[in-house]
Amino acid sequence: MRLFTPLLLIFYAMAPFALADNILVFSAASLKAPLDEIAAEYEAQSGDRVTISYAATSTLARQIEFGAPADLFLSAHPDWIEYVAQFQTVPVSVTQFSSNRLVIAGNASADPLPLTSDGLTNALGRGRLGVPMIASVPLGIYAKEALEDLNLWVTVQGKLAETDNALTTRKLLELGEVPMAVLYESDVREQDGLKVLAKIPPQSHSPIKYEAMTLAPTGEKFAEFLRSPVGQMVLRDHGFRPQ
User: Fold this and answer.
1) What is the pTM of this model?
2) What whole-number distance in Å separates Cα of residue 82 and Cα of residue 128?
3) Which among 26, 37, 120, 226 is least buried, having the fewest CB atoms inside 10 angstroms?
4) CATH 3.40.190.10 occupies which residues in the chain?
5) What is the pLDDT of residues 2-18, one digit of tens each?
């Protein structure tokens, strides 16, 4: 019996690691700052390993369509949740865990922006308005809806600098490549040197919904942590709004 004791000790010492899960999360790029923090806290508490792939929601949805093995899909627009759902052959669950607000942002020295045609024209000058792709990226979709509702679309339609996701749009603004950009309120909060020039009325566009779609049982554990008091607190600290 004495010969087997060391082996048993090694087995029990390794057991928690053997039971740990590797969770692959596909997440909207705008969630990067809070999600990195939430994932680190979840790993510390659970012993699981969380790997996160960030990109535009539309890009991630198409990757899942073509077989990418995500356990959890975090989307910034309900339409892309519906898109992914049509390719799933096993039951999935979808829950909202956060929301956001649209703003027009500029550098810290810029003046407040009146949401009028003249106000936008004067503020842009010869520059362009930064925005993610209006045909597919959630932030771009919401932005176009709002600009149309506010009768500002004709003013800016030919003056857009479109990018592949929210973080790239913010980077354009940070680098001074554009004088203004449509961003999520949380994006501005994360970056020194930028400020909100105008808040876009929420009623001017579809509700911004961050939803978690579980594609495997392991993904549900992390989705639950997102909705927990800890996950919600981190999201609020980074400028996101309650679920």
Assistant:
1) 0.88
2) 32
3) 37
4) 16-99+209-237, 102-204
5) 443 444 333 334 444 44
